[in-house]
Each structure stands twice: as structure tokens, then as C-alpha cells.
Amino acid sequence: MLCENVEFSDIGSFLYYDFFNGLKHKNYPVKCNNCGRVFLLTGGKFTQYCDSKIKGKSGQPCRSLGARQRSDDK
């Protein structure tokens, strides 16, 4: 298939299609264990923390803070 042409009658149909098409391509929504934001897992990367910057923590991403907390817990 070279190109896919899809027409939608309303915004709900588009959102439904877009969500399940993302799941088909292995883009899963996950909630960050640190900040609580929802982010997409892409390409088989399984993580519990997002890449967004944390305010007040010198611009560190949640992923680095979460890794440090996990190593401190061990």
C-alpha cells in the first residue's frame, strides 16, 4: 500500500481511528510515575518516566530523577 485515504464524518470518528492506529503501531499511552503526565511509549522503549523537564530541579527530565530514586531505593 502506497497511500491510505480515509474520510471521517465527525471528530469522534477521527479520534477513535487515530488512537487505535497508534496502538497498531505500538504507541501506547502511559502515565508517568513521577509527574503524572500521560506520554506515549514508542518503538518498544518501556519506561515508567517521561522526558519532560521538572520545574525547580535545574531542568532535569523525570526520567533521570526516576532513575536516581530507583537506585537510592535499592
Low-confidence stretches: none
- For the record, give the distance between the C-alpha atoms at the N and C termini, rounded to a whole number: 50 Å
Shape, please?
elongated
Major sheet: arrangement of strands: 1-2
* Helix share bin: 25-40%
Give the structure's gist in a few sentences.
The chain has 74 residues and is α+β, with helices and mostly antiparallel strands. The chain has 2 helices and 2 strands. It is 35% helix and 11% strand.
Describe the structure.
This protein is an alpha+beta fold and 74 residues long. The protein is 35% helix and 11% strand. It is built from two helices and two strands, in the order H-E-E-H. It has helices at 11-24, 62-73; strands at residues 28-31, 38-41. It is elongated. The mean pLDDT is 83.
Give a quick set of tags describing it.
single chain, 74 residues, alpha+beta, two-stranded antiparallel ribbon, 2 strands
Topology:
Layout: H1 11-24, E1 28-31, E2 38-41, H2 62-73
Antiparallel strand pairs: 1-2
